[in-house]
UniProtKB/TrEMBL annotation:
Organism the protein comes from: Actinomadura soli
UniProt DNA-binding region: 13-32
Record-given protein name: TetR/AcrR family transcriptional regulator
Disordered as annotated region, ranges: 175-194
InterPro entries: BetI_C, Homeodomain-like_sf, HTH-type_TetR-like_transc_reg, HTH_TetR, Tet_transcr_reg_TetR-rel_C_sf
Family matches, as PANTHER family: HTH-TYPE TRANSCRIPTIONAL REGULATOR BETI, HTH-TYPE TRANSCRIPTIONAL REGULATOR RUTR
Keyword DNA-binding: yes
GO MF assignments: DNA-binding transcription factor activity; transcription cis-regulatory region binding
Amino acid sequence: MECLVDLGWSGTSTTEVARRAGVSRGAQQHHYPTKMVLVAAALEHLLEAQRLAYETAFAALPPERRDVSGALDLLWEVFRGRPAKALTELAVAARTDDELRPLCRDLNERILQVILEVFERLFPENTLPPDFVPTMLRGVFAMFVGLSIQNALDDDADGHQAAVLRQVKDVARLIVPGPGTPPSAPPERPDRTS
């Protein structure tokens, strides 16, 4: 993943990964005979490591910050981190790489599934309709991907990403109230019969 962030997809090679890992090329090829096998294993490891790191960081927050606002702050930190940059690099490269595309085709869905599982664990008593949560999280995910790409280019020099995050947290607090806060009415589902 470090190679992907530092060198991009085209600059990442199994030789460079072996060099950085301090293992012989033969040892690397024994465990991961191709670049695709290596990247697939790294993806699995990265997704699980990110989930664990996120849940650990959330649990370490002061009790008054263990709310949807704190959760979004942590998620934004994840999206700005090096592992997320590696995933973005893979997703962008897969657009034009026929060999990489099958490996990354369901990457967004897998990340969204992790986000959904974590959300349900962190906020089990939310009052949102079950079909609303995946769509809401899909929107947050898409927005954070876009914001993180912009952040990689300008490091939020003008504060635009921070302004968007503040507004998203304001709306999220209305939808997913913190512990001890009475929930507002869940969003109305559109009448599909009319």
